[in-house]
From TrEMBL:
<dbReference type="InterPro" id="IPR052164">
    <property type="entry name" value="Anthracycline_SecMetBiosynth"/>
</dbReference>
<protein>
    <submittedName>
        <fullName>VOC family protein</fullName>
    </submittedName>
</protein>
<dbReference type="InterPro" id="IPR029068">
    <property type="entry name" value="Glyas_Bleomycin-R_OHBP_Dase"/>
</dbReference>
<dbReference type="InterPro" id="IPR037523">
    <property type="entry name" value="VOC_core"/>
</dbReference>
<feature type="domain" description="VOC">
    <location>
        <begin position="11"/>
        <end position="119"/>
    </location>
</feature>
Amino acid sequence: MPIHEHYRPGTPCWVDYGALDPEGARAFYGELFGWTFRDAGGYSFIELGGRVVGGFGRVPAGLPASWNTYLATPDARAAAVQVKERGGSVLLGPVPAGHDGRLLFALDACGAPFGLWEGRRPAGIVLVDEPGTWCGHELWTHDAGFYPGLNGVEVMAPPEGMSPCWLTFFATVGRAATSARAVELGATIASGRDRATIVRDPWGALLALT
């Protein structure tokens, strides 16, 4: 079972979902991946078989529903300054996240939303690379230089008709069957590749199934 708790700076260490329709999104993803949701006071932890695999909350004001990638950082306050110096904008934070650390949510210079996480103990998602958990990230951007310390991320120009964004890949037992089930639940297929199917959930959030 892939347990991952330590992340180098610039490495994706957490994902969460910003929901426009929390009740509907819980039902959709619970049915699709078998997830359950544990409330933590206005924010929920997504769990699979009792292991944390991500977070779940309401979308920040003015933004669409989305899957959000968080990068590890040793200093969220310094990272906030760097975001602004590089042409991005800070939407939230840095703010404490309980006793675990501090988080920052921002837009990069191309307008793609992302987060930064400064952990005070082993940080990040506990279970990865299993069916129903994230297994990779892709950055769609015209300016990868905004992230000078990026680790373990594939970078590409946004596909035609797509805006700059971070794309989270989720492992499945069977990609074709999971994609078909997503469509039955109200999602649409955005595009297909040899190794992944990119899906748009019922609220417009993109994710990739592998």
